[in-house]
Model the fold of this input.
Amino acid sequence: MNSFKKFLQRIGLYALELCWPRNCPVCGRSGDRENRHICSACFAKLEWIESGSCCKICETPIATHVDHEFVCSSCVASKPHYDFLRSSLIYSYPIDYVIQMFKYEGSVFFTEELSEILEGTVKAKFPYEEIDLIIPVPLHKNRILKRGYNQSELLATALSHRLNRAVDTVSFIRKADTPQQARLSHEERSENVKGAFKVVRPEYIRARTILLIDDVTTSGATLNECAKVLKQAGASKVWCLTLAKVRD
Done:
């Protein structure tokens, strides 16, 4: 089945979901949250990340409570190119299962529900009125042809509607079809994404405060490389937001 047929199939499934919601895709129970797919029992299991007692740049938690701004040793040793990074949830069950379905199994009906989670995080953790542009971490065209869509682009577009901010899915591209980061070590991840991204319309990036969207933070190497390239193109600030962060 070619990518266009896959796309039409997913749109059809998405429309079906809107008209006739399934049971909770995680546990199979009948849905009990209006216009939502994740049931209340599974939703209650989500591990939310609170910004208190975390690094002010990368949001890595620290063991003890502090009442002042704190920068972790990693960010002190090598300051990231992004201004700061925030995530909504810890990458644990059931959000890990949901993201796998959303990312690899065509479950695009999760888009609105996941973008709602991101919206809450933006409004709680960002001076979101200052955001000029929302940009998703791009996929290489070969990966999009294989998968049929970019999950980060779906999230960024839905979030842009919620925040009434512009989304740009064409000015920033992935020019190298690199191996998937999940298969690499921490050190290999940074090397893997070097030179992988390119700004093709710098006039749309220059002097903008950009909210960069991805689904999961593991090492942060991809977001850091993206931020470097965007700032080299003239971006004023790059703030990063992901749906979930892998536990350190």
About this structure: The chain is about 35% helix and 15% strand. The domain at 46-245 is CATH 3.40.50.2020 (Rossmann fold). The chain has one domain: 46-245. Strands lie at 84-90, 133-136, 166-167, 172-174, 197-199, 209-217, 237-245.
